[in-house]
Amino acid sequence: MDKINIHRVLIAPLDWGLGHATRCIPIIRAFRDLQIEVVIAAEGSVAILLGEEFPEVRIIPILGYQIQYAKTSAGLFWKLLLQVPKIINTIRKEHIWLEQIIQEEKIDLVISDNRYGLYTNQVPCIFITHQLTIKIPNELIEKLLQKINYHYINRFTTCWVPDSEDVRNIAGILSHPKKMPRIPVKYLGILTRMMNKKNPIVNYHYCFLLSGPEPQRTLLENQILKILPQLSGMIILVRGLPGNLSSVEVSEKIKVFNHLSSDGLEAIISSSNLIICRSGYTTIMDLIGLEKKALLIPTPKQTEQEYLGEKLQLDGFFFTSKQKDLNLLEAIVQADNFPAKFSNISKFSTNVLEALLLEI
């Protein structure tokens, strides 16, 4: 077999929530399995999470996008639109940053998880995304966004998509559009940091996993805290706040963690009967990998999450309920009774990574 001529790789996940960082964990592990040195570029909560996961890996600071979300669903579009100039400026700055850091750190390969500015002619650059189609309600604007999306993606060497290439896949039209980018597109299979251990001991009736951007994370947490006393059995709440020391008051039957490592989170999910969480793509990959029942609550007006929630319910994976006018207690009962069926979907592995690197 040909030899992989890569010695040092830079991996940089986007800082919109923690999903981009957590789905990079199996990729980082696979590079280390291949004896390829990893340098991580991150800041804030992403740097904290990956630093806890890989304390021996060097993390260098990179400017975050620091996107702010509206408190109301109706204001989300306009809030994001007003930040477009800042996003474009950040893309420009991270591109300039990369040109310099490649020389300083002697980087042979760049892995960018949804960071559009991390391309260069100096070394191969891989763009990771499951959103080749950016789903929004307006078809004309959706087509325009795809053109803009491809304009940036086509600057990279290759695009890696964390999904199955088969008809039975997770992201549907998001990852399998009618029109593809000009650069090669390779499917990784499911990217999950968790291993499916058969017949785990169930210790918790309900596991609430909070994640995603503020203020929606806090708004959903407040709804959860109101109904917790009405639920029976052991309950666990993971607040999705790495590095945060704040606490909430709950009863003795409820365990609360601000954040858990991958191993800790895997143990909790595996030992829970029902998971209540957002329909973030990384979370979905983890749940399918573990074959766990779940209630998905899409972040309001995040059309990707809403599309995924509806698709995965139709495909028989999970029960989904929108946050608007949510009756959480009723939705939990419906999710508990939902006949979830998990089919075989290809998964990412070190062998998959090795084969892809040999093609670069």
Task: Kindly summarize this structure in a few lines.
It contains 11 helices and 13 strands.
Keywords:
11 helices, alpha/beta, 13 strands, globular, 360 residues, Rossmann fold, seven-stranded parallel sheet, single chain
Written account of the structure:
- It is built from eleven helices and 13 strands.
- The protein has 360 residues and is of the alpha/beta class.
- The protein has two domains: 8-190 and 346-359, Glycogen Phosphorylase B (Rossmann fold, 3-Layer(aba) Sandwich); 204-336, Rossmann fold, CATH 3.40.50.2000.
- The strands form two sheets. The protein has a seven-stranded parallel β-sheet, with helices on one face. Strands 10-9-8-11-12-13 form a six-stranded parallel β-sheet, sandwiched between helices.
- It starts with 7 loop residues before the first strand and ends with a helix.
- The mean pLDDT is 90.
Order of helices and strands: EHEHEHHEEHEEEHEEHEHEHEHH
Distance between the termini: 14 Å
Q: Looking at this structure, what is the CATH superfamily of the largest domain?
A: Glycogen Phosphorylase B
- Examine the coordinates and then state which fold CATH places here, giving the name of the CATH topology of the largest domain: Rossmann fold
Helicity range of the residues? 25-40%
CATH domain class of the largest domain: Alpha Beta
Beta strand %: 15-25%
Name the shape in a single word.
globular
Could you give the order of strands across the largest sheet? 3-2-1-4-5-6-7
Q: Averaged pLDDT, please?
A: 90
Alpha plus pi helix count = 11
